[in-house]
Amino acid sequence: MRIYLLNNEKYEGVENYPVISFSPLISSIEFDNIDYLIFTSKNAVRITNAIIDEWKKIPTIAIGKATANEIKHLGGSVEYQSNSGYGEELAKEIDKIYKNKTFLWLRPKKVVTNLKEYIKNNTLIEIIVYETICNKPNKKLIKPAIVIFTSPSTVKCFSKIENFEEIIPIAIGKKTKEVLKQFTSSEIFIPKNPNIKECINLAKNINKSNLLN
Fold first, then answer.
1. What is the pLDDT of residue 112?
2. What are phi and psi of 19, to 5 degrees?
3. Which residues have C-beta within 8 Å of that of residue 126, sequence separation ≥ 6?
4. CA 105 to chain CA mean position, Å
């Protein structure tokens, strides 16, 4: 059974079926009086890096290991990395560790969690650096299949071009799972840790059990 990832990131044993793309919304960023940057996605890191190099001079806060690795890969420094992978937990951790600091959150247009609701002891400034756009792949999705959904946006964009019959859905996290429930009555699998590699390992284990065969 094929395993599909709904973006263009390459992993062994997984096929890409990109239903989303990313469009930058700004051309410059100011970093005056900013103590730390916050990144809650790898795409925000990549797009920020394409806009300006100055971000690398400011210590960053990463939502999880994958985002932290992307920051390091592009030459930035990671001051703190959350292990939860969830925005709400990240914001609470920031408020517990830091006091009276100014954070710049470089974020997508649509977010699963608004960090401002949870950061009370520090100042949070937001800049929307990109938006997610639905994309129609130029290939056919072969069913039955295991499909990995990495965000609520991938669920919604997938629903516009495909149905959910004969697929085993894997949700990267709790919010994505909740959105998937609106489109399918099938069992939705979720990894212990919300990252793509964990999703892929889960998919490969499911594949061995032949749930749709």
1. 85
2. -100, 0
3. 104, 105, 107, 116
4. 15
